[in-house]
Amino acid sequence: MTLRQLFDPSAIAVIGASATEGKIGYEAMANAAIFDGPVYPVNPSTTGELFGAEFVSSVTEIDDDVDLALCCVPGPAMPDVLEECGEAGIGAAVIYASGFAEAGGKGEELQDALVEIADEHGISLLGPNTSGFLVPGIDLRCSFASGVEEVPEGNVAVVAQSGGVGLVLAFQSRRQGRGVSAQVGLGNRANVGFAEAIEYFDSDERTDAIVLHVEGTDDGRRMLEACRESDTPVIAYKVGQSDVGEFAESHTGALTGDHELYTAGFAQYGVPTVDATDDLMDAAAALGNSPTPDGPNVGVVTAQAGPGIIITDRIQRAGGRLPELTADTQERVDEILPGITYADNPVDTGRPMPEFGEIVTAVAEDERVDIVLVYELFEEAIGFPVAELDGLAARVDKPVLFATEGIEEDLADQRDQLADAGVPFFETPERAADAAGALARYARLHADNGVADGGTTRVDVADSEVTADE
Amino acid sequence: MSDAVPEPIASARADGRDTLTEAEGKALLASVGIDTPSFEVCESVDDAVDAAETVGYPVVVKVSSPAVTHKSDWADGIGVAVGLDSEPEVREAAERIFEAADERDIDADVLVEQAMDLDRGTEVIVGGIRDPSFGPVVLTGLGGVFTEIFEDTSHRIAPIDRAEARSAIEELQSAPLLSGYRGSEPADIDALAEVISAVGDLVTEHPIAELDVNPVLASIDGVIALDALVVLER
Description:
The complex is a heterodimer of chains A (470) and B (234). Chain A is an alpha/beta fold and 470 residues long.
């Protein structure tokens, strides 16, 4: 099954489109109408126009190659609707309605019936029980939620089990100035699940990192195998460390599995895990905009000691390591800034200064450093070392992360310049440190020796303590 | 799954059982190269005494019956007698087991096994399960309180190679106990990793719902499986 017709359709039909504001059939049509290609409102009991398109009575009446149907009809109407989609040669459908497998009993039977029809006609089903999906890069907004038209294009594909969490992540990405390449709420995963979505976005040119929000899936092994096959980095947020079983089951119709198994499985298959939605997007911003780190060693450059100490503490707990810089680098730093506050790792310049960028370059070129993290409070007279940071990551072939604080309006212009230069940007010392930690964990999980540690703690046991009979 | 059904699984199936006896379980482990103490399954008290001579004192005497899965809980705790140094001790332990089996109207043998010095090593638990979502999975943990109280276990999706098995051991918080603690001898971690990997292979290749090797005794001399519970898929 290819998901091309779902995520890159030629034309769209909105089945159950409605002229009544507030109805799902209206909101979905309003958002879909932004799409560059033809969008057909389908409703047998309505005539006239909606968002400039003429209502048609059935998808079989459309004289066009429609790839995708957005189904805004109640669950019990779905089997007939899907049959018609099959007859019309439609290859993908989004089912917004709930009351399927997540409700058990009859709902489960109804979902099974839909899967059977879909399989017969080769239709990819997103949902049911989902808010839909977005591909901002082609103005494809297949969601009934308000505000989705504002989510900007970025390079991270959000694959969320819950449509609601998918939206949380999409709106976060907007507020962070990052955007998404796609945002997908899988819902009940009738026949489009994690594995299918990961495969698709791994081959998607707009996507440089894939994030997963997972409540529980009955096909964990296939999901992990898709993660391992993916050349695009995958980061996961598995919810349910404490017992949310009953609620989660009613929510998405899945068995919420053993949290430990998920965490261990993700690590084993090369996927770092995080424990919060913003951590997920931060890790994706770091991994999706950086060369792959060769190891977990972080070189920190800070213009203020305090934030540097927070970062140093945090990185080590998050799975990173702060190596001593080489004598050459320390000498170089001392030559640039004689009498510097602290010339080893973290390098502390004491305050922002014109030579700050040179110091960053020196640390980035240190052979012991795999990942660079830069922190400075914004000082208007000096600004950020944009010229030095621009292209630095690519040249040294290491991630270079940047975090700052200051008056938003004052630093906005410089921040935009960093964004244009592709420098991952973070808003607090902790979030930058956690992102560096995620990079470090990714590097460990993908190290050639294949050593996979199980999570965010105890990372050094594998490195130092158990070496007795090696 | 492998086409060839190992003998212990075939014989349990032939009897219509889902649970292997300890002897069958250990034979299954032995078939993939996991060491077990030498043992004999005996149908009478006299056989048990002879077996004790053969395997050498001290010995352990255990009830052996498909009807008994939790041997040490069975019949007020007489199902497992450890540290038996002499013929009278073996005779008495075996008699009590046969009597208790008669009282409960079950078919039982006794298993006479070479006793291991538990102080010479660290007890480890290696388990295999078939998870509904992930399929074959292996679990590793240190025996006793570390697993029961601190839940210090690690999991891997099977099959896994030895390097991955090593990482499962090293990830345990209690791992330093295996690598030599306060002058104690380090356990053979490579051999333990082999056992974990082999348990993963067994669950992957055969219709096993659950495989518990508890305990595995890990010492500087190697790793030996002291008990085995194997439950087949129905």
